[in-house]
Amino acid sequence: MAELPMGKGVSAGKIASNVQKKITRAQEKVLQKLGKADETKDLAFEEGVINFNKQLIEGTKLQKDLRAYLTAVKAMHESSKHLYECLDDMYESDWYGRKDVDSLFEDSDLLWIDFHQKLVDHALISMDTYLGQFPDIKSRIAKRDRKLVDFDSARHNYAAVNKGKKKEGIKITKPASLLERAAPGWAQGILSAHNVAQTSLSRSQAEEELDRAQKVFEEINIDLQEELPSLWNSRVGFYVNTFQSVAGLEEKFHREMGKINQNLNDTLEKLENQDVSSDRTQDANHTLSPGVPPAIPKSPSKLRPMVPPPPKVTPSMDMKQENIINLFGEAATPNISVTSPTQYDAPATANLLDMDLDSLQAATTPAAQTWDSWEATEKVAVTEEAVAETVNETAQATTESTESVEMPESFLFKVKAMHDYNANDSDELELKSGDVVLVLSYESPDDQDEGWLMGVRESDWIQHKVLGKKGVFPENFTQRM
User: CA 398, CA 341: separation in Å to the nearest integer?
Assistant: First the structure.
């Protein structure tokens, strides 16, 4: 028990009484430790005290860690705020989504503040309330221990008085007989009555002290016997509520913060697309290998000039035969695609078919034929027949080739790689100069980047007949066939 300070309402007698109690308790504890006096034991209560101490340690640790968690949340809020302020400072006023970015930063700051405050209200305050009941109970347990010592001391004193009753009677009788002999007759009766009164007073005081100590001890003991088990059982519900509150608040916070971050990401993507569509010549998502290959243009199809068709050629009489044959030989080998009859180069073939053979024959046949003119005319006729036959064979070969090689459903046209291209992403197609690529249509037109084509190498398609190796590549690295 704490010392009572001297002051108003505290008398010297009260202080002396408290000092005497401390001395008596100390003597009793020493006797109990030495085995000279028995100690009252209550195993159920002692187990309850052990659980109480364990519960107090766990609760104190949880409170400490919860406060550290709140401190970390506040620090994370400040770090996030500074990071967004840095982006806000760099975000120029004429950039896309300037007002949206400001609104998102404000929403993020308010969400952090709300998250921290709700953690305090639903977790920390209930934690403090829960632990607030432990100091009082701990103080009452200590008081019960002191009252138990007082009860044992009173019990031992009362037992000692009753046990020494007979011996005290004997000790008093012997000197009384001597006094009776020395004292007058009338004084002997008074002395005997006084001895009996002193013995009865000691016994009565011991019994009264025992009753008082027992009553005080039992009052506090009964209350604690009820409260300790109830407090021990309440820990389960408290722990569940505390961690459910923290988990629920975290889940809601991260869900709302995820929406803010997604909106910010969408805004930044639109800013990037807007910037790329201006005067930039290189897409941020596709980097080219350094060296000879050209930069990716904004619109590759516009930068590639159209090739005009060759003019029609009508041979004259004074042209040499080998020139005529060479002329027809060049025209008889058009750039025809092997994939489909509709994919060949129309202008070259049209020039050959549009040639006026009748006019050619009329121009090379004079009114009066000589041997030389007849021979030249005959050679021209042979040449015409050879040209016609060559055109028929080429068309037949094209038809057979088209039937033997089946193109993908999304096939558009062919291109030939003019430069090496090193793929930088998994969705890009690696190209070597000279590779023939089958250009395919995109599944969704919105997925196509400007200046980029989707395709698969012809060799991979012919070998595997699958589009697993398809990818995107820069259009101006290739030439349409």
Answer: 7
Q: Look at residue 267 in the predicted model and tell me its pLDDT.
A: 92
Tokens 């000691």, located at residue:
202
What is the length of the chain?
481
CA distance to 30, 107, 206, 454, per residue, from 35 (Å) = 9, 72, 22, 97
How far is the C-alpha of 116 from the C-alpha of 120, rounded, in Å? Answer: 6
pLDDT digit string (tens) for 267-324? 999 998 887 766 444 444 444 444 455 665 444 443 344 444 444 444 444 444 544 4
Q: HSE-up of 284 (CA within 13 Å, CB side)?
A: 10
Secondary structure class of 457 (helix, strand, coil)? strand
Q: What is the identity of the amino acid at 100?
A: D
Cα–Cα dist 474/286, whole Å: 9
Residue with tokens 């002191």: 146
**What is the three-class DSSP state of 351?**
helix
pLDDT recorded at residue 306: 41
Cα–Cα distance for residue pair 363/366, rounded to 1 Å = 8
Average pLDDT of the chain is 74
pTM of the model: 0.46
How far is it, in rounded angstroms, from Cα 380 to Cα 322? 11
Q: Are 410 and 440 in contact (CB under 8 A)?
A: yes
Contacts of 56 (CB under 8 A, 6+ apart): 131, 134, 138
pLDDT tens sequence across 209-241? 888 888 999 999 999 999 999 999 999 999 999
The alpha-carbon radius of gyration of the chain (Å, integer) is 56
Render pLDDT for 361-405 as a digit per residue (tens, 0 to 9). 444 444 444 445 545 555 545 455 554 555 755 445 444 444 466
Higher-confidence residue: 195 or 457?
A: 457
H or E element in which residue 363 lies: helix 357-363
Q: Enter the tokens of residue 397.
A: 């070969």
> φ, ψ for residue 98 (rounded to 5)?
-60, -45
Nearest to 56 by CA among 124, 144, 133: 133
Report the alpha-carbon angle 219-224-227, nearest 5: 130
